Amino acid sequence: MDIFEAGLNALGVVLTFERLAYMMLGVAIGLLLGVLPGLGGIVGVSLLLPFLYGMDPVSGVGLMVGLLAVGATSDVFPAIMVGVPGSAGGQATVVDGYPLARAGQAERALGATFTASLLGGLIGAFSLFILIFLGRPLINALQTPELLMLCVLGLCMVAVLSQGALVAGLVAGLFGMLLGLVGTAPAAAGYRYIEDTVYLRQGIPLTIVAISVFAIPEILQMLIEGKSISRSGRLEGGGLLKGMREALGHKMLILRSSIIGTVIGVLPGLGGAVVDWIAYAVAKRAAKDSSQFGKGDIRGVMAPEAANNADKCGAMVPTLFFGIPGSGTTAVILVGFSILGLQVGPDMLDKHLDITLATVWTLVIANVAAVIVCLLASKWIARVSVIPGRWLAGFLLVLLVAAAWQTTNQWGDIWLFLVLGAVGYFMKHAGIPRPPVIIGFVLSAATERYLHVTTSLYGYDWLMRPGVISIGLLTIALLFGPVIRNAIKRKPTTKERVENV
Amino acid sequence: MSETQLPTIDAKTERSVVRLRQIFTTALLLLFTYGFLEARGYSPDAGRLPMVVSTAGALFALIMLLGDLRLSAELRRGATATQIHSPTEGALSDVVPEDVQPEKEALGLACIAAGMRWFAWIAVLTALVALFGMLLASLVFVAAFLKIEAKASWRAIAISMIGIVVVLGFGSYLVGMNLPDGLFFDGRLDIDMLARTIGL
Q: B144 to chain A: nearest residue by CA?
């Protein structure tokens, strides 16, 4: 049986009423959780576990994967409408999505975002289909030195995200790294920077950093101005279709972002929180005119969202074929597979190939269903942006406090949320870019872990590995490419020089 | 930010932004110094990255602070931000956030005064949660906030309160969201207790 025949058979397996119904239930829960800040896929999948006992494996996988696939789609509502990342993967969307909503273009941003999400999800699912047969050599080629270099690449994105204020961006990125170092040291026994505070032993939670540094300053700004999210108090008509058309017109951007998302998703331990930033930074670097990035550039919402949805598909590769969960959510999914009686690993490529291919179809169908639902809801949800800010703010502050509490259910969550919210507020008003804080924070633990393992195992030899050199060259190209390109462009031709004379 | 928008930022505001940056950068410089001094006491494996991060952070914070001090001096001499092009930061106008509206005088140090009132509301919410638990505190807070700040009608307030109950109820009962308990009440509505109280 060839691969395409197997694929079609798997589609037949998925398309039964019962299995589709379970998948749609997963999609519905995933969409609702995506909208609520602080509640990620891990909460949803954990809730499903008790119901998986005795369930038909394809239905069970559909339920879990349906939920996992769409969290990254609906989390754009809070990101664009109120500047609050709905999940770790929705952080970069805030940077341009919220300014678009403030400019009265919420519908346009939502239309573009959902179309990009759909295309990203479909490209990711197709890539997963291909990787089912080619993924093993790729994963085997990536060891800790390559993962360390990918962290370095991620950290270099700080320079791209600094919005013309490089030193301020570096200071912000290092501040984020310092926050990320609080708590247990991964490379040695002991705690760092906790000052005998029990709460800080497990480190500062990412959710708290993301919602406080981004959301509090935006809500306070809206209150100070006394206006609605849309400053003009109006919504641009026809924005949804315009946004969708724009997304379809940026094929290369979406393809590139989706490939980035899939590749990073395949790498265990990176994904989720950093993929959107890398896709955003690459989009900004590749843009001919990047002056509007950070101020409401539509490409700034499409790139992270396409990458985000593709990342969810890529993350299934190490989870299904190697039993290596790339994130907390995929770790819980592994438990779900075990409850369903499925042994992840090489068995998924032969004995359970039908389930694996059914997973790909679930990702495709779930993404399409989620985008249709979100697009239908967008027109109404976009109207939130014309409600006066003071009507919304009380409700939002309550939601944010509740979201902060979800992290560890301790009062430390709330205090930290307030302190970092104030820091974010001053950063915004002092003109210090905030995205580098998140990048530094997300990557500090991974960088330290990989650095320790790499230097312990390889000494300095790791620097000569082909994968390390390739990623190093890619990093240099991303950092200095535009400078070199501009230098080449600025050089006048002989004809121009003659004309000038 | 394009140059055509710049006249709305006056010299006083420019100085204020730079001063806020100086205060913030000084705080970060102290934080990185603390990070460095603490890291010296850790084992080599635990202290390696903290040392690198805090040293680099302190260095860049110092460069930023010196750059801003120079900028301050130039501004005092009467130059405008657009005329000053710092080698490290570009024009000041580049770093003033696009979505901060200068006419509301919330730029620079003025943001402290402007934000104080709203931070006070957040403090009130936190205190209410600590006393009455999340659900009850949210209802009291939203009602007070809407009445005082938005001058909303009681009907609108009632609708908002129903919204709060629906969202927090959905979160706590259907998706297992935990809500903070207060000194006097639980964080979420205890449906069983409520049913017993009304005799169901």
A: A394
